[in-house]
Structures are given as C-alpha cells and as structure tokens.
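Step 1: inspect the first sequence and its tokens.
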Amino acid sequence: MDIKSTTPFAGLFRTSPFKPVQQHMRLVFSCICYIPPLLDALYRKDYEQVKEFADEIIKLESEADEIKQAFRLTMPNTLLLPVDRKDLLNLISDQDSIADLAEDIAKVLLYRDMEVPDPLKGVLDELLEGTMEISVAAKDLIEQLDELLQVGFRGREQEKVSQMISGVRRSEHNIDTIIHRIKRTLFEHEQRLDPISVIFWYQLIDLLGGISDQAENVADRLLLFLSK
C-alpha cells in the first residue's frame, strides 16, 4: 500500500496549498484501512497476523507523521492562502490524530494477546462498519479541497461540501449510540470475563470511538473554511 508521491514535498505547495494535506490524509486513511483485517485476525486468534497488520499501521502512522512535520517546517509564511494558515495547520493535526488512534489500537493488540468476547462481536462489527464509513467520508471531504479552491469556496461545490459535513456529523452521532450499546453490553458481561481484559476492551472501544470524534473535527475544520 505504497502511496508516496515522487513530487518533492515543497513543490506540492506550488501546485496547491492543499496537496500535502491530501497526501497526508491518504496515508491516515491507509492506517484506518488496516483496522478491519487487524480485528478479523483477532477474531480468529491469529496473533501472527495481528502482529503483521499492527506493524503496518505503525509504519504508516510514522510516514504520516513525517508528512505532518515536513508540512509544518516547509509551509511558507509568505504563501498567499485561501484559508488561514493556522487553520490549515490545525487541520493536518486533526487528521494526524486519526492515525495516532489507529496506532494506539495496533499497539494494544500488539503487546497483549486478547480474545473478542462473544457478546461483543455483533455490536463491535457495527462500530467497525460505522468507523470505516465516517473515515471514508472524512477522506472524501479532504479530496474536495481542490475543487473548493477553484471556485473560491463558494457556489455548488460549497453546498455539496456542506452536505457532506452534515453527513459526517450524523454518522458521528450514530456511532455514539453504538458505543453506548457496546459499553453497556460489556458491562452486563464483565463479571464473566477476565478483569484485566475488560479494562483493555473499554480502552479499545474508546480508541475506536475517538476515530469518529476526530473525523468530525476534520469536518468542522472544513466548515470553518467555508464560513470565512
């Protein structure tokens, strides 16, 4: 899943100030794409494959981190931007937080052999599906930045992006209800589970839920762009 650009990083600013942000988001999304196979391997108790997928997520997160650092260091102060420079820096930080959460999930499963409790499986699948959907939506929003730039953040493209932002917010709300149900399910069965594993499952659920929170933050950041 190598998506590195052959274009010199600083050169990306000459084509569009948003190119590095989009390049970063594609790597972040690649991290998220490894979470379903990671959990599938956990379902099957294939810990060798869990390690393999966890290592991939950690590697991709590191590559995303390098892009974020390069973006901060090479973004020209004098570049005439259609949006506030600080907002653009905050946007890439919000994106990076998504990759950080994927890495945290990978590390929990890398350092501890866990089993998926049977009562959690159905609702965990729902949470995973919702997490993937909102991650795709956040990535699609970032891919719209070039079109927004071309029309000056106005017109039909603005309306289209506004509707996409509303969709991300609805998805985040739906995921909140799933998280409530999965935590309630865990609580109802926790006395029959290993207490230490229960603690880690609460942590994993919060990390997965954090991805949708950060995806909503990305959407809110774009809403800020549209409102200025």
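Step 2: inspect the second sequence and its tokens, then contrast the two.
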Amino acid sequence: MSERKKLDRRDFMRGAAAVAFTGATWAAVGEKTETKYWQLDPAKCTQCGRCTTHCVLTPSAVKCLNQFDICGYCDLCFGYLQPGSRNLDTGAENQLCPTAAIERKYIEAPYYEYKIHEDKCIGCAKCVKACLVFGNGSFYLQIRQDICINCNECSIAKSCPSDCFSEVPESNPYMFLTGDTHLAHPPA
C-alpha cells in the first residue's frame, strides 16, 4: 500500500515536469515565430498584369500605390495619360487606367498630384509600367495586407514570371521602391 503512494508521487512529479517542459518550449518557440505575409518586391516586378487575373479575390488584393516622395507631380504624367493623348485633361478617353482609379488634382502650375483610389484599382500595372519607362517610377504594386486573406498558397506568386513574391514578416509587411523597410504602412 505504501509503495503505491510512492508511485503516485513519482507519477505526479513526472507529469508536472512534462507540463513545465512543454510550456517552456512553447513559450520559447512562440516568441520567435512571427506571422508571415505574401508581398511582391517592386524592384523585381515586370508589370506582366497577372496580379489582376491570378488573385483569388476579385478585384485583386494587389493595388497600385504612388510613392509621393519620388513622384515628379508632372503635368504630362505617362502613368495617368494614354500615349498620344491630344489633351492633357481628365477626359476618360485620355486616361491610361482602365478603371479610372487615378485621380489627377491640380496643385500649382505646372504640378499635379496623382492619387490612387484603391477601391477601383485592379492591379493591372499599366500605370506602373508607363511611369517606370517615362517617369520617375513612383507608381508601384503592393499586396494590401488589409485586403489580402493570406491564403498561404498565393496563386499570384505561383504564376509570377519574375518570381517577385516572397513571404515577409508581419512587422514589415510592405516593400518600398526606395528600400525603406521601417515603415509599417505604405505611403498614403
């Protein structure tokens, strides 16, 4: 009878040690693991247009952003205007964007601000390509983390011909043209 009590105490001590070890291991691993998000590197992007058609969401979670600190605020903005436009105005026939997601706003002669309306943007990259070829390259694509469902098998990443998608830590979910990584959110 007394042997049975010693055995119970040993079992209790082993069980307590196992629980303590498991808890310590989980705490140590849990602190190091950070959630990852899919993101595209604007320096590798070739503006192929697959972000529009291969995202599981409609419209795509990939949106065009304008990095204002490198934008030229050009009157003749190739990211905004169709090539060969006769008029430099906001007429629909003059706009390059198929969904009119870019708003052109007069600031002062000869400068204009170009604001992206992300709710209209489909991530086709037409403006990005034109801005890179003829402008300062301030337009670029990013996966908006507030829209992306983080499906962990990003179908855009699988089809991307330039292999510009990778998983980034939750603490730095965006990649910027200027290489800034300390910003938590893309420029407005």
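Step 3: confirm your contrast with the notes below.
The CA atoms of residues 40 and 165 lie 4 Å apart. The first strand starts at residue 36 and ends at 40.
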